[in-house]
TrEMBL record:
It comes from Oceanobacillus aidingensis. Gene3D superfamilies: Dipeptide-binding Protein, Domain 1 (3.90.76.10), Dipeptide-binding Protein, Domain 3 (3.10.105.10), Periplasmic binding protein-like II (3.40.190.10). Residues 26-61 are annotated as: Disordered. Residues 27-59 have a biased composition (Acidic residues). Its main location: membrane. This is Peptide ABC transporter substrate-binding protein. Belongs to the bacterial solute-binding protein 5 family. InterPro entries: Peptide/Ni-bd, SBP_5, SBP_5_CS, SBP_5_dom. Residues 1-20 form the signal peptide. It is a lipid-anchor.
Length: 563
């Protein structure tokens, strides 16, 4: 792209940012309107919440942290709200068997200890005697059995169900080929839970920190199936309880006196706003109505180096999928040509900003291999910007397919200013570097998600936020039968690599399988990586103790606010 043309594009993008930039969560990363989770049905890209206007902030009697959730949670049922705007609140209202600690490692939660069988298949969890629900009921093993089978029940249609396929009988029940009785999770007694896995899974304790594995008070749920829909019926077992919920406007959490570790909780209240505009929430931060806020993109250069800015890693990737069932992307060389034509450095530095890193691989930085090296550094750069090579590959691919000219190319994306800005930059690069004219198609989230799932989109935007701290989490998305594949790619060789990458007990060998799988993804180029996610958050003076895990959901258990 010529420098003159790039500057013109940037001026257009800057204008778009100024007019309207959106946010989807208090710490939804560098570009909160876009910090979706593919695993989370990409609901962060969804602008399903209303643009709630900033209202007068209530004055609560006690130490209160004021933060922004961006929009209404999709659901506070742990099996249904498979997105950041649901799981951020849930991670503070509830707690699983394990909980990420200050070092972002899986530590004791509801379970005070556990035993693992010699073959690595059977986990026996011992629940705390003082673990209670906010209504005073004890948290019992049956609450986990009920919750996990609810997640796997085909009638629940949980997007998170695949996470429980590590449990024996889980996939069979969820796919309709088995029954709830086949799911090998058992309440031995009120405070003892036994779980049997289909294969050794070294990251299982980390997996259990995911909100999808939170318990559900089975007695409350049986009496009130919609217990999770209103504050007066919601029961919590985490650091906070749901004090009030004004839908599409605000949520107020209060310290949960029944929580087993209540003495560690410093705040009396947490007030969640639902403001879906980054400029509005920044203004609220300036006036003291919010204690934390995302950085509006147009102010990134001005604010990014400030003293009150938190910048951290956030495991995730923004990428674009090719539909291998539609022309011309059945041809690998044409897919590779498109990738070589994209200047990821320019997109990261000039379009997204916020200190994000361009993506030259699929697995984001932050995953430590057995040898102590970072997965990303170990497997190196797998894609590159090379316009000349792009043109060569395009010519070769077109010759293989007998094309005199390419079929029309349509790039589809879900509605968001930042996503549109990236799409426009890519459109310009493909024209400038490859001579390919691309039509942009903007769709609302629900329409876009369904069309992508049904392989109706030729070339479309996606992103992924890791559910648990292991590189296989992203790579498993592209096995042949995964509903998250959404490309038409099928490969027995790739499927076998992922299976070995899950079950191999020698960690060094397991990582070798994962390195090979990622290299295969890059060679096949079924998806084009663009940039990694990060967390950039403004914090008011006196705010401390908020845990923002590189992989996981933000934690207010130890948060504090001093004068």
């Amino acid at each position: 792209m010529s420098r003159k043309k790039l500057l013109w594009v940037l001026l257009v993008l800057f204008t778009a940012f100024v007019l309207a930039a959106c946010t989807a969560g208090e710490d939804a990363g560098e570009e909160p309107d876009d910090a979706d989770t593919d695993t989370a049905e990409e609901a962060d890209g969804e602008e399903g919440g209303e643009d709630a206007a900033a209202e007068e902030t209530p004055d609560l009697d006690g130490k209160t942290l004021y933060i922004n959730n961006g929009q209404e949670p999709t659901s506070l049922d742990p099996s249904i709200g498979f997105d950041q705007v649901s799981w951020d609140p849930l991670n503070n209202l509830m707690e699983g068997l394990t909980r990420l600690d200050e070092n972002s490692e899986a530590a004791e939660g509801v379970a005070e200890s556990w035993d693992i069988s010699e073959d690595g298949l059977t986990y026996t969890f011992h629940l705390r005697e003082d673990a209670n629900w906010s209504n005073g009921d004890p948290v019992v093993a049956e609450d986990f059995v009920f919750a996990w089978k609810h997640m796997l029940d085909p009638d629940t249609a949980s997007a998170a169900a695949f996470l429980a396929y590590y449990i024996e009988g889980g996939e069979e029940y969820n796919s309709g080929e088995g029954s709830a009785d086949d799911v090998n999770v058992t309440a031995i007694d009120d405070k003892t839970l036994e779980v049997v896995l289909i294969q050794p899974t070294g990251f299982f304790l980390d997996l259990l920190t995911n909100p999808a594995f939170f318990p559900i008070n089975h007695q409350v749920a049986e009496e009130t199936p919609d217990w999770h829909a209103e504050a007066d019926t919601f029961v919590a077992n985490g650091p906070y309880m749901l004090d009030s919920w004004d839908h599409d406007s605000e949520m107020i959490f209060a310290k949960n006196p029944e929580y087993w570790d209540a003495d560690a909780v410093n705040l009396d209240y947490v007030h969640f706003s639902m403001v879906n505009d980054s400029n509005t929430q920044y203004q609220m931060f300036q006036t003291g109505e919010l204690d934390t806020a995302s950085v509006p993109p147009e102010l990134s250069d001005e604010l990014i180096d400030g003293d009150n800015v938190f910048i951290g890693e956030y495991g995730g990737l923004e990428f674009f999928r090719f539909n291998l069932t539609e022309e011309p992307f059945q041809n690998k060389k044409i897919r590779q040509a498109f990738s070589y034509a994209i200047n990821r450095d320019d997109i990261a530095e000039y379009v997204v900003k916020q200190g994000v890193e361009p993506a030259y691989g699929f697995v984001s930085p932050g995953f430590t291999a057995p040898d102590g090296n970072d997965f990303r550094e170990e497997n190196g750069d797998l894609v590159a910007f090379d316009p000349e090579r792009a043109q060569e590959l395009l010519a070769e691919g077109m010759k293989e397919e007998g094309y005199d000219e390419l079929p029309p190319i349509v790039l589809s994306f879900n509605t968001s200013d930042t996503i549109q800005a990236i799409a426009e930059a890519m459109q310009n690069m493909l024209s400038e570097n490859l001579g390919v004219e691309v039509t942009l198609e903007n769709q609302e989230w629900n329409v876009f998600a369904e069309a992508q799932q049904n392989l109706e989109l030729q070339f479309s935007r996606s992103s992924f936020i890791n559910d648990y701290a292991d590189p296989v989490n992203f790579l498993e998305s592209f096995v042949s039968d995964s509903y998250m594949n959404r490309t038409g790619f099928e490969s027995e060789e790739y499927d076998e690599l992922i299976q070995k990458g899950k079950s191999e007990t020698d960690e060094e060998q397991r990582y070798e399988y994962l390195y090979e799988a990622e290299r295969m993804l890059a060679e096949e180029m079924i998806a084009m990586p663009i940039r990694y996610y990060n967390v950039v958050v403004l914090e008011a003076d006196g705010v401390e103790g908020i845990l923002r895990h590189p992989v996981g959901y933000f934690d207010l258990k130890y948060a504090d606010k001093t004068e």
